[in-house]
Amino acid sequence: MRRGEMGRRDFMRTMGWLGVSGASAAAAAGLAACAPARPKASRDTLRFVCAVQQMTDPALTTWIEASNLFRNSLEFLTEVDADNITRPFLAQSWRPSEDLKTWDFILRPDVRWSNGDPFTAEDVAFNIRRWIAPGSKSVNRTAFAALRDLEVTGPHAFRLHLDRAVCSLPEQLYAFTCPILHRDFETRGGDWPKNPVGTGPYRMTDFEVGRQASFQRRADYWGPAPALARIDYVDLGTDISTHVAALAAGQVDVLYRVSVAELDLVNRLPQARLIRQQAAQTVVMRMQHDARPFDDLRVRRAVQLAADNAQMLKLAYRGFGAVGENHHVAPFQPDYAPLPAQKRDVAQARHLLTEAGHADGLDLALTIGNTQGRFEQDTAQVLQQNLAEAGIRLHLKVLPASEYWSVWDKTPFGLTYWSHRPLGVMALDLAYRSGSAWNESHFSDPGFDRALDNAMARLDPKDRARDMAGLEKTLQDQAVMVQPYWAEKFTAVSPRVRGYRAHPSDYFRMDKVWLADA
Amino acid sequence: MRDLAIFLGRRLGGLALTMLAVSFLVFLTLEFNVEGVAVKVLGQFSTPDQRHAWLAENGYLDPFLLRYLRWLAGFVTGHWGTSTYYHEDIARLIAPRLGASAILAGAALLVMVPLSLILGVAAGAREGSLLDRSISLIAIVTTSIPEFASAVFLSAVFVIGLGWLPGVSTMAGGFNLRELVLPVSVLVLASTGYIARMTRSSMAEVMNQPYVRTARLKGASPARIILRHALRNALITPVTVIMLQIPWILSGVIVVEVFFAYRGFGTLLYQASLNADVYLVESCAMVSVLVVVVTQMLADLIYVRLDPRLAAATGRKP
Amino acid sequence: MTGLVLVGGWLVVALLAPLLAPFDPLVSLTPLAAPGAHAPDGRIFWLGTDLLGRDILSRVIYGARPVVGLSLLATGTAYLVGVASGLAAGYFRGWVDTVLSFAAGVVLSFPVLVLYIVVIVALGASYANVVLAVTFGSAPAIFRIVRAIALDVAGRDYVAASVAQGEPAHRILVQDILPNAAPPLLVDFCLRIGYSAITIGALGFLGLGLPPPTPDWGGMVSEGRAMALAFPHLVIFPCLAISSLVVGLSLLADGLNEGGRHA
């Protein structure tokens, strides 16, 4: 895209913010009608393989799987679709002030809860206030740390006051812990599965932890009726090859996720269709500045120079994705600023190590959790080979996933998976701001923080990209991490499934999915 | 009768003592370090003050022995705690899974026992024959193939290659016999050989006993010899061997259940270990040990009942 | 005889791995090459390569080392513990016997894999912990065998004679009792190495085994399982390897047993 030109995506994003619906924006952008015609409501049941985990309070969920279940019944203020476009959802439109510290939201007036109550700004107020309350155990408390308070300005309108400019507020409102619950949620017991009231198109009719959950279509939904009459979520455990076998045998229709290891199998099976989706999800091998030997910039630079990001993508992820540039901003994110390419240089790495006093090699240990799959340890094994060429002996410590989360922010050199975020600045704000709760690398630079504040105050991604260039360069120069690639997402579905798209954040919406006849 | 009662009483006492020791070891191993539990419950993005609050609320800051005794008291009275992953009462979580594993193991035994006994008797009756040597060889080979390897082979052939059998055994649509075939086959393959060989050697030994040779000399038919004279004594060892195989079957069940996603006790324990679901691992370990100890006691009782020499020692009539 | 050949073969392979393996098992070359395909430098991948492009033949050869080494080490340690405690219990009897027998009973009441899982959940996976877990699992059974033999032999006349002559206990244990235990123990040793190998493989399969990138037969099967349909060579060769080793050990044990009986 040439400078000054607003791409289709950016246009639609801006249109979305101004409250124009997705369809009109598409028409305005001169696009043909997007989705193929969907059949009218059918009587089909779709079986979706997904872990059915215990949940009581959606704001406290820690795993995305649970959110995919309640996303059929509960809705959000905004929606970020698979193309990274933020659309109106329960909020019809929103307008930020010039300094991005005050946001006015207008809600849809025609939404009804499944128990008959009308949906009002009081419901939203109840939710947002409990997210940020001092005693809140929810992760939203840190995610919305900049939110000071909420002001109800009308039956279907409210205003948010922030301590600092946050350009990504609409995107953050679609995080999986942010569904809008009924205002009486806590007085009625605070356990959603026991009283599954929601505004969404489905009603939960069955919920058995570790086994199955069922959703039935609701008659009085405010939006267009979904095609599927019923969705069953089936828990088949964590082994994906078992899920693929179930799909092959026709026992299920949609898998939650498929990893690189299963790609060939899925492609060989006629009963399974592979779906690919570009996503800004990545693995970050970050080095902590305050731990030896990473306190020496030369050591960190050496590790970065010896790493072969392209080879890690090719071997550990079979090449399905984009090469990372060690600064946690993806080329397909709208606020990405291109930088000169970094070349692998083993000789320079050796030179730096000698300078730093490690002439006869260095021993390092990397902690891995395989939280998303074996590709994490595969990536580390390729890095191991890369570093061996520079005289660094890398020792791999593999922990079970749940053990890893106990140490992810403590280990000096760890491999952490970061899930997709629609905007580049969001990850930077979460992970590299001084003192942020999720700053696992302990990176701290006041200049960086100030530049980050500036970036956060710019609404237009193209404007922001100029600030981003500086932020990206700082992260590269400080050799904070080896961030080898951006990984695609995959899943497999049966050939009968139509209208299903993988979502880069795994936030699946089923209301546009239908089953064709066999 | 009195002797039997004393015998039983001593065994039960030993059982209780063993369980006590096991409980202490298990608790010691798993609960010595509890920092990670809060993280598992609250998630990786929780803050230190949130975690500390949770730990205090749930009694984790008390001294070790107090926590052990509290847990033990709870365990004995049926309060096994709540799983940190499933957030459900553990006793209610384990019961159906244990039942499912019992069905799997039971089905495997149902096939394994007659098969291995028949093979063993046939081999032992004609020691050194071609039949004997073939059966022995097959037995050795099948026992040596690990469960995960045979599961891989069978699965590749019957599920994906021929498509005859389902790939997963989750019983999502209610009980389905076809979904049991592969898991049971793997278990049968793993243990049949060993039992068959024990039966064979026991049978061969009995066949060489003087009273059997006498019967043969007197002109009795082979079938009559086997059924009337040899079988009863030959079966003492295999029966106890089968009971003693139960710990091995329990281990094999874990691998098989994980492979075929069968919702049994094995997958529960495996998931618990992956999620470091401490209470669940403790409870599962205790239950496993209980099963083993009880079956071992039963094996002893049966052995005493069947072996005429020992029956005399305990005062029971043979 | 076949057993000896198989076991001996794997022992040789394990010892001479660096000489026998055509490639470095840790280096990535061409991913997912079929058996018989050519490497970039012209050599042949006789058994193909895995997902990360490492030669499978080399990984199977090097994989013999942790399996053979760990099984031997673990079984050896189990034997040390089991024999020592068994001799003590059988000879000294009294409270020594009661305490040791009780301890053995407690450990024996755990199904092997459950014991391993508990140990590894608590202590993490590493070479040392796998050896520890296997030792825990095997020592009690050995203890029982040795104890039974010691009890039996200790009652014999020549032992009584040695005691009367004032021979120290450890001399009696080693010279009089141990040689009687040797034949059945030898058979048990071979079988037990096989069982350790299977269990170590199962641990690798469940993902609770050795850290990467160690070539570990069970781990290789686990990694390649998802792709076994399209690339069967990923799982078949490690399975054949582990099966042949354990079959060899079983045949060897069987042969020793037969030999012992006819002697």
Short description:
With 518 residues, chain A is an alpha+beta fold.
Chart the SSEs and their pairings.
The complex is a heterotrimer of chains A (518), B (318) and C (263).
Chain A: H1 8-17, H2 22-28, E1 45-49, H3 64-70, E2 78-80, E3 86-88, E4 91-96, E5 102-107, H4 121-132, H5 140-143, E6 147-154, E7 157-162, H6 169-172, E8 202-208, E9 212-217, E10 230-234, H7 240-248, E11 254-255, H8 263-268, E12 273-287, H9 297-306, H10 309-316, E13 321-323, H11 346-355, E14 362-368, H12 375-388, E15 392-398, H13 401-407, E16 413-418, H14 424-431, H15 446-456, H16 461-477, E17 481-482, E18 485-493, E19 497-498, E20 514-515
Helix pairs in contact in A: 9-11, 10-12, 15-16
Chain B: H1 2-31, H2 35-42, H3 48-57, H4 64-76, H5 90-125, H6 130-144, H7 147-161, H8 178-207, H9 210-217, H10 222-234, H11 236-260, H12 265-274, H13 278-306, H14 308-314
Chain C: H1 2-15, H2 17-20, E1 37-38, E2 44-45, H3 56-92, H4 94-108, H5 112-123, H6 127-154, H7 157-164, H8 169-205, H9 217-224, H10 233-262
Antiparallel strand pairs in C: 1-2
Helix pairs in contact in C: 1-3, 1-10, 3-4, 3-6, 3-8, 3-10, 4-6, 5-6, 6-8, 7-8, 8-9, 8-10, 9-10
From the 3D structure, determine the CATH topology of chain C.
MetI-like fold
Order of helices and strands of chain C: HHEEHHHHHHHH
What Rg of chain B do the Cα atoms give?
Answer: 24 Å
Strand content of chain C: under 5%
Distance linking N and C termini of chain C: 17 Å
Task: Give the CA-CA distance, first to last residue of chain B.
Answer: 13 Å
Coarse morphology of chain C: elongated
Biggest chain pair interface = B-C, 44 and 43 residues
CATH superfamily of the domain at 97-274 in chain B, please?
MetI-like
> How many distinct beta strands of chain B?
0
Q: Note the overall shape of chain B.
A: flat
Largest sheet geometry of chain B: none
| Corresponding CATH architecture of the domain at 97-274 in chain B | Orthogonal Bundle
Structural class of chain B: mainly alpha
Radius of gyration of chain C: 22 Å
